[in-house]
Protein of uncharacterized function (DUF497)
Amino acid sequence: MLFEWDEHKNTINRQKHGISFELASRIFADPFLITTQDIYSQDEMRFLSIGSIDGVVVILVVHTYKDDNGAEINRLISARKLSKSEVRKYGYR
C-alpha cells in the first residue's frame, strides 16, 4: 500500500497531536485494524481507521483512497491518539 499526505498538514498534525503521518501510516500493518466510512464527511469519501502502532499506542487516522493507474494510494488527512473512553469503546487496553 502506498501513502501520501500534504506536508503542511503533516506539520500541523505533529504540532497539534504529536503524531507524524509517517508514524500514523504504520497502523495499516495492524492485523486488528478497524476501518469504517466517515458518514459525516460531505466533500469526499473519507475513512476512519483505528489501530495500534507496534501494539503500543492506539490511534485514529482519517484518510481517503484513490487509484493511480491501478496502484491504491492511501492519503492521510489527520491522526491522533484515542481518548481513554474511545480506547475502552473499541476494546483496546
Summary: The longest helix spans residues 7-17. The first strand starts at residue 2 and ends at 5. The beta strands are 2-5, 34-37, 47-53, 57-68, 71-81. The helical segments are 7-17, 21-24, 84-89.
